[in-house]
C-alpha cells in the first residue's frame, strides 16, 4: 500500500472511531436514563460504522473492538431490563426493526445472548436462529467479524453436558451443529476474501487473510472444549465435517492453517484413534500446501503422547500407527511430485523420530523408513542443498542418539545407502559423528562383518571419494579426522584370535586404500592392534598353509611386514623403522628368531637407504640400540652381526658428539644383566675407549673452530658409563681406569677458559656419587675405596 493509501486509511479509521464514539456517547446517555428506544437507535447508528468497506482487516479489527466494548455495556443494560420485567422475547423482536442488516444482526446476537441466559427459550433454538440469520451478511470481512462476535457471546451458553443450558438428550449434538455451521460459514467467507479485488494485490490479500485466521480457528477451539464431544462423536461427526470443509475449500492458506488447528486443539488420543481419517485427507489437499510441516507436527504430538506413559503404547500397536503414517507419507510424496527433496527428507526424519520413540525395539521399522528415503533419493545426484543435507544428517544421527550403540545402526541395511547421498564434506562429518558415538559409549565392534559395515559408513575418512583431493581440507582438520580413525581401530576387538585376525585383515584392506597422506595415521594403530593379538597368542606357532589355518604369530608377522612396507609409498622411513623394531621385540617375546632378524634387517635397510637427515639418524640408531639390547632370542652369530652393524653405524654419524654418545650406548649391547652369556667385558671396554677417542677428537675440533676446548660433558657421560659397568662387576673396568678418567676431566676443566655450569654440576654430582658409595661401606664401598676424588 502506498503512503497515500495508508494516510487515507488512517483518516477513514479516525472518522469511523469518531462516529462510533459520538453515537456511543448518546447511547450511554439513553442507557443512564433507561430510555430503551434511544438506546437502540444510537447503538444501531454506532454499529453502522462497521458497515465500512474501506478499512484493511487490521484497521477494521481496531474499530470492531471499540464497538465490542460498547456492546458489552448494552448487553448489561438488556440484562437489567430483563430483571426489571421487560419481556426478552419482545426485545428480541424489537431489535429486528433496525434499518440496516449489520447493526440489526449485532443487536440480535447481543439480545440473543441475554435471551439464552434467561432460559425463556431452549438455547439450541436461539442459537440456530442466530446462525441462520447471520447468513444475511455475505461481505467477507464484515461477515467474519459478525460471526466471530456470535461465537464470542455464545461460547459459554452452548447446550453442553453439565452446562446450565443443557436440554434433552441430543443437545450436545445441537451445540456441535451450531459451532460447525458457524465454522463452515466463516471459512467460506475467509476463503472468498482471496477472490475479491485485483490480481496484483493478491499477496497483500493473503497477508490480510493470514491476520484473520484465528477468527476461524477459534471455532475449532470451542469444539474441542465441548465436554459432550467424546471420541465417538469426534470420529463420526466432528472430524469428517471439519475435514470435508478443509478439503472442499481448495485454498492453500486455509487448508494448511486448519489442518494445523485440528492437530493442535484436539486431544492426542483422538488423533491416534482417527489416524486413518486424518491422514486420508492429506493427499487431497492442494499440492502447494506445506503438508510436511503438518504431518511433522502430528507425528511430534503422537511421539510425545507415546513418551508420556508406557500404558498408551499398546494403543499405537492396536491402530497400526506406524504403517498408517508410513503409507500416508508415501502417498503425499507421490501426490506432490514437485515436493523438494528437503520436504520429503523432513517427513522421513519426523517418521523416524516417531518410530524411535514409539517402537524403539522395531529395527525393521527404522530400516523401512531409511529405505523409503533411499528410494526417494535414488536417481538424484549427490545432495548439494544445505537444508536437505542437514535433514539427512538428522535422519542418520537419530538412531545413533537413540540406541547409543553403533552396532545397532550397523544392522540397518539402508543406513550406508542414505549416507551415499551426502556430499563428500558432510559424509566426512557424519563419519566423525559415528566415530564419536563409538568413543563416547565405549562400544567395541567384535565381528569382521560389522567392521566391514562400519568402514563402509566411514569410507569418507578412509579414502578419497570420487576424486576429491585431501589437499582441499585444512591440515589441522585432516589430522583430527585421521586421529579419530586411529582411535577407532583400537575399539575393534574380539577375544577369539580367529575372529580378531579377520577384523585385522578387514581393517588392513580398507586403510591401505587411504593413500600416502593417511597411512602414517592409520597404519600404527593397526600394527599395535595386531601386536596385541600376537602377545595373546604368544608361544603358538605353525606352518602357514592356505587361508583356513588358525591364527598364529608367524602368520600375523607376515601380514605386519607387508603392512609396514606400504609406508614406503608415503614415504615415512622413521615411522616404518619404529614399527619394524616394535615387531622385532614382539617376535623376540614369541621366540621367533628368524622373524625378529628379518624385522631388524628391514630396519637397517631403511636406515641405510631412506634416513638421510642427521637428527633422524641419531634418533634411529638409539632406537635400534635400545631394542637390540632387550633382545634375547638371537644366537651368537645373528647377535654379532646386528651389534656389529649398530656399532658401525654409530661411529659413522655426522657429528662427533653424536658419534660418541651412540658408541658408548653400544657398550650395553655387550653386557646384559638379566641374560647369561652376553657379558663381554672386553668389547664393553673397547666401546668405551672408542667413545673416549671420539670425545677427545670432538674436544680438539672445538678447540680449532672456537678457540677453546669446549665442554667436558662427553667425558663426564663416559665416566658415568665406566661407573655403571664397574658396579656391575665388569673385570675390564678397573678403579685405575676410572681414576685416570677423573684426572683427565679435572685437567680439561682447569685448562678450559670458558666454564659450563651444566658440565661442572654434572661432574660434581658424579664425584659426590663416588664419595657416597665409599662412605656406604660393604662390598661396594671396598671397590670404590681405591678411587681418589
TrEMBL record:
InterPro entries: ARM-type_fold, Vps35, Vps35_C. GO terms for cellular component: cytosol; endosome membrane; Golgi apparatus; late endosome; retromer complex; retromer, cargo-selective complex. Plays a role in vesicular protein sorting. It is a peripheral membrane protein. It comes from Nelumbo nucifera (Sacred lotus). This is Vacuolar protein sorting-associated protein 35. One of its GO terms (biological process) is intracellular protein transport. It holds the Pfam family Vps35. SUPFAM superfamilies: ARM repeat.
Amino acid at each position: 500500500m502506498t503512503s497515500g493509501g495508508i494516510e487515507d486509511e488512517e483518516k477513514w479509521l479516525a472518522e469511523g472511531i469518531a462516529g462510533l464514539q459520538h453515537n456511543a456517547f448518546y447511547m450511554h446517555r439513553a442507557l443512564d436514563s433507561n430510555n430503551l428506544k434511544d438506546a437502540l437507535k444510537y447503538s444501531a447508528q454506532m454499529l453502522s460504522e462497521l458497515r465500512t468497506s474501506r478499512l484493511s482487516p487490521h484497521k477494521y479489527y481496531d474499530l470492531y473492538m471499540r464497538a465490542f466494548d460498547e456492546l458489552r455495556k448494552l448487553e448489561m443494560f438488556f440484562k437489567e431490563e430483563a430483571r426489571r420485567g421487560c419481556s426478552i422475547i419482545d426485545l428480541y423482536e424489537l431489535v429486528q426493526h433496525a434499518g440496516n442488516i449489520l447493526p440489526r444482526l449485532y443487536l440480535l446476537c447481543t439480545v440473543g445472548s441475554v435471551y439464552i441466559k434467561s432460559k425463556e427459550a431452549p438455547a439450541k433454538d436461539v442459537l440456530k436462529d442466530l446462525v441462520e440469520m447471520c447468513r444475511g451478511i455475505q461481505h467477507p470481512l464484515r461477515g467474519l467479524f459478525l460471526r466471530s462476535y456470535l461465537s464470542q457471546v455464545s461460547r459459554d451458553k452452548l447446550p453442553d453436558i453439565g452446562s446450565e443450558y443443557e436440554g434433552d438428550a441430543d443437545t450436545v449434538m445441537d451445540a456441535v451443529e451450531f459451532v460447525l455451521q458457524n465454522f463452515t460459514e466463516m471459512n467460506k467467507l475467509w476463503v472468498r476474501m482471496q477472490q475479491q479485488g485485483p490480481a496484483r494485490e493478491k499477496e497483500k490479500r493473503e497477508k490480510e487473510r493470514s491476520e484473520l485466521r484465528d477468527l476461524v480457528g477459534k471455532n475449532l477451539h470451542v469444539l474441542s472444549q465441548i465436554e459432550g464431544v467424546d471420541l465417538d462423536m469426534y470420529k463420526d461427526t466432528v472430524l469428517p465435517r471439519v475435514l470435508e470443509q478443509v478439503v472442499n475449500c481448495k485454498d492453500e492458506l486455509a487448508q494448511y492453517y486448519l489442518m494445523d488447528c485440528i492437530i493442535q486443539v484436539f486431544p492426542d488420543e483422538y488423533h491416534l484413534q482417527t489416524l486413518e481419517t486424518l491422514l486420508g485427507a492429506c493427499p487431497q489437499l492442494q499440492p502447494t500446501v506445506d503438508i510436511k510441516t503438518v504431518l511433522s507436527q502430528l507425528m511430534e504430538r503422537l511421539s510425545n503422547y507415546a513418551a508420556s506413559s508406557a500404558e498408551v503404547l499398546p494403543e499405537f500397536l492396536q491402530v497400526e500407527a506406524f504403517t498408517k503414517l508410513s503409507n500416508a507419507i508415501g502417498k503425499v510424496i507421490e501426490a506432490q511430485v514437485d515436493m523438494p527433496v528437503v520436504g520429503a527428507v523432513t517427513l522421513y526424519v519426523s517418521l523416524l523420530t516417531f518410530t524411535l520413540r514409539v517402537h524403539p525395539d522395531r529395527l525393521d521399522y527404522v530400516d523401512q523408513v531409511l529405505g523409503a528415503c533411499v528410494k526417494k533419493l535414488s536417481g538424484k545426484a549427490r545432495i548439494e542443498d544445505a537444508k536437505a543435507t542437514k535433514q539427512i544428517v538428522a535422519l542418520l544421527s537419530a538412531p545413533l542418539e537413540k540406541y547409543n550403540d553403533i552396532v545397532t545402526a550397523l544392522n540397518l541395511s539402508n543406513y550406508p545407502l542414505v549416507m551415499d547421498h551426502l556430499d563428500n564434506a558432510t559424509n566426512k562429518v557424519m563419519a566423525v559423528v559415528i566415530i564419536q558415538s563409538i568413543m563416547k559409549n565405549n562400544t567395541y565392534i567384535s565381528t569382521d562383518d560389522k567392521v566391514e559395515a562400519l568402514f563402509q559408513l566411514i569410507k569418507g575418512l578412509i579414502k578419497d571419494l570420487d576424486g576429491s583431493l585431501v589437499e582441499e581440507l585444512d591440515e589441522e582438520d585432516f589430522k583430527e579426522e585421521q586421529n579419530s580413525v586411529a582411535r577407532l581401530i583400537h575399539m575393534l576387538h574380539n577375544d577369539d584370535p580367529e575372529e580378531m585376525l579377520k577384523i585385522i585383515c578387514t581393517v588392513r584392506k580398507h586403510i591401505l586404500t587411504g593413500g600416502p597422506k593417511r597411512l602414517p595415521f592409520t597404519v600404527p594403530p593397526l600394527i599395535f592392534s595386531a601386536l596385541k593379538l600376537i602377545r595373546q597368542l604368544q608361544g603358538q606357532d605353525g606352518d602357514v598353509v592356505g587361508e583356513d589355518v588358525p591364527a598364529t604369530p608367524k602368520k600375523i608377522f607376515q601380514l605386519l611386514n607387508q603392512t609396514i612396507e606400504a609406508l614406503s609409498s608415503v614415504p615415512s622411513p622413521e615411522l616404518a623403522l619404529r614399527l619394524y623394531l616394535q615387531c622385532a621385540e614382539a617376535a623376540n617375546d614369541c621366540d621367533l628368531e628368524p622373524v625378529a632378524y628379518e624385522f631388524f634387517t628391514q630396519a637397517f635397510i631403511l636406515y641405510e637407504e631412506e634416513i638421510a637427515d642427521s637428527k633422524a639418524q641419531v634418533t634411529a640408531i638409539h632406537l635400534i640400540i635400545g631394542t637390540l639390547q632387550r633382545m634375547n632370542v638371537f644366537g651368537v652369530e645373528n647377535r654379532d652381526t646386528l651389534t656389529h652393524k649398530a656399532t658401525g653405524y654409530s661411529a659413522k654419524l655426522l657429528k662427533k658428539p653424536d658419534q660418541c654418545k651412540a658408541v658408548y650406548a653400544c657398550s650395553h649391547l655387550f653386557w646384559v644383566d638379566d641374560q647369561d652369556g652376553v657379558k663381554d667385558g672386553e668389547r664393553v671396554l673397547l666401546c668405551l675407549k672408542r667413545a673416549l677417542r671420539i670425545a677427545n677428537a670432538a674436544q680438539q675440533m672445538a678447540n680449532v673452530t672456537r678457540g677453546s676446548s669446549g665442554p667436558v660433558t662427553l667425558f663426564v657421560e663416559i665416566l658415568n658409563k665406566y661407573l655403571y659397568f664397574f658396579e656391575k662387576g665388569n673385570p675390564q673396568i678397573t678403579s685405575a681406569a676410572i681414576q685416570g678418567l677423573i684426572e683427565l676431566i679435572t685437567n680439561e676443566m682447569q685448562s678450559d677458559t670458558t666454564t659450563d655450569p651444566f658440565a661442572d654440576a654434572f661432574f660434581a654430582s658424579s664425584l659426590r656419587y663416588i664419595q657416597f658409595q665409599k662412605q656406604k661401606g660393604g662390598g661396594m664401598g671396598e671397590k670404590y675405596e681405591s678411587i681418589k676424588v
